[in-house]
Structures are given as C-alpha cells and as structure tokens.
Write a structure and sequence with these properties.
The chain has one domain: STM4215-like (2-Layer Sandwich), CATH 3.30.2000. It is about 25% helix and about 40% strand. It contains 2 helices and 6 strands; from the N terminus they run αββββαββ. Strands 1, 2, 3, 4, 5 and 6 form a 6-stranded mixed beta sheet that branches. Strand 5 (about 120-130) and strand 6 form a beta hairpin. Helix 1 packs across helix 2.
C-alpha cells in the first residue's frame, strides 16, 4: 500500500536538520538513544526503545469524485534534553525552546515542499525526571499531516 508516512518522516528530518543546527535530529530510536544531552527524535517518542513504540499512524480514505485517496497521518516525535545538574526549570526551558524552533520551521513550509497539503504540530506531552546524570525533560509531540496519494 502506498503511504506518505515514510516521505513525511524523511522530510521532517531534512527540514529540522537544516533549521536546528544545535540539535541532533534522528530517524527513530538509536542504539545510543539515551546518552546525548539534546536530541529530536522523528518517528519515535524518545522513551526506552522496544517493539511496542508506535512511530506513526495513517488513515486513508477515498476522495469524492476523484481517483486519488486522502492520506492523513500522525508522526510521533520527541525532544529530549538533559543537563548535568538538577535544574529542571532550565532543562524544561531548553526542551521547550527546541520544540518552538521545530514548530517554527514546520510553520515556514506547512506543505513540506509540496509533499502534503498541510502539516502541523497538534499536541505535546511533557515528562520531567531526575537521573544520575542530572535533570532530563522529554516533550513528546505529534505532527499531523493531511495529504493525498
């Protein structure tokens, strides 16, 4: 089945890698998903990787009077920031700053170069934790897109 999920994920990585040069933007879980201080995961929630992590979901429907299908989807993404101290306030501000920059880059081209009709951030979830390496903040967010194939 044809789907826009993979091209959307690849385009998000491209857009955010270009726009967020001080942040490690990666495709899904990494072998070393935890040690990096700042990372933006595309197609992954930034939690402990296992086989039950849902990276994206899509829904297709017939479009009226057309030989094309609507292809709408949601890509799970996450910004993870970790400090070397216990300052959760500063770590949260850093993570939220990265999310704001990612959303601004997406708003600059909501069609992802014409790939979809529109793509935008629709929700976000904040998770703080204190670890042996310091404060850690994970902000999971969803990029929703509307397209056609």
């Amino acid at each position: 089945m044809a789907s826009l999920i993979d091209p959307v994920i690849l385009k998000l990585i491209e857009v955010w890698t270009a726009a967020l040069t001080d942040l490690d933007v990666v495709d899904g879980p990494q072998v070393d998903s935890d040690p990096v201080n700042d990372r933006l995961f595309v197609g992954f929630n930034g939690d402990t990787p296992d086989e039950y992590n849902e990276g994206a979901v899509g829904v297709q429907s017939l479009m009226a009077f057309a030989k094309v299908k609507g292809d709408d989807g949601q890509v799970t993404c996450a910004v993870v920031s970790r400090s070397g101290d216990s300052d959760i306030t500063a770590t949260r501000a850093r993570a939220n700053g990265f999310l704001a920059a990612a959303e601004a880059a997406l708003r600059a081209d909501m069609s992802l170069g014409g790939l979809v009709m529109q793509a935008y951030v629709t929700d976000y979830r904040y998770s703080p934790v204190q670890t042996q390496q310091g404060a850690k903040v994970r902000v999971v967010f969803t990029v929703t897109y509307k397209g056609q194939i």
